[in-house]
Amino acid sequence: MTRTALGVLTLSLCACGGAARGSHGSSTSMSPEADVASERPAPSAGADSPGPAVTTSASAEPIPVGSLASGTPTPQHAMQGWGEDYAELLSADGELGQALGLASVDCRGARELRDRICELSERICELAQANADRDTRARCEDGAARCARATDRVDGACPR
Amino acid sequence: MSARLVTTLVAAGVLLSVAACGDGGAGEWLASARAVHDSADRALAAGDLDAARRSLQGFATQPPPEGVGPEDARVVRQDVFYRLSRLALREGDAEAAKGWAERGLALGRRDDVFTANLLVARGQALEALGQGVEAAADYHDALRINERLLDALLDGDEP
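^ Those are the sequences you sent over. The predicted structure of the assembly is below.
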């Protein structure tokens, strides 16, 4: 819910002169009854950022990063092999970013949506039992399958 | 996060958006929407359903001023219609609940929580009216929207 509100806040700020389209998939209700949460996950800095502006080529001159940016020029022989180090560092950074990307999923919102899907599915099936209607039975089966899929997806993205 | 805090942040976001556009009329309208919800909350807390309905109904029947983006106007008004529908159901007036939900849906359907909520509200009204098959259809439509919202959330795509 936090990112929902903040996302809406951000998107609304971008909505001058038009609709804040991106916000409308979110739980932006002003009413307490509207309790379905959904939102786009905020971009993960680790996953989406292009990484430090350095070259990974061993032959190219590395751009100083962090504490390396200050101080006297490094002797050339000490620079050798830094390119590979940077490549490894960036690779590790990418893996970390992926991990952070997974962690950035709004699991609370995802679980709420899954629950809503499954609650609706259950209710449809209750109605299917009460109504010998072919379309309703088909909706029951379809809803149950979507509930199972949602459960699998959320369990995969948000392991407990 | 509490619904109230979400409300505050959402309202603040919309108001800031409007303020950035320099449209005072739209800002006043959105502020009045916030006030209407607060008023309805207070009335409901006091058990005064009539007062809550009057407050929401007065806002819902007023068209938004110029300067409010059509999608912003839609979601704000749909939210009010949703509350009116829920309130009517709570009062046992399924026909009115169905009517409010349909007025909200008539403002436009999107893959968003506002449309899904209105579909569920209408489904509940239809159930109360003994129209289970139609209710199931609305529930299924709402389910599909929630599924798309979940997919968008997990995939990071727009629904």
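DSSP finds seven helices and no strands in chain B. The two ends of chain B are 23 Å apart (CA to CA).

Shout if you want it in another format.
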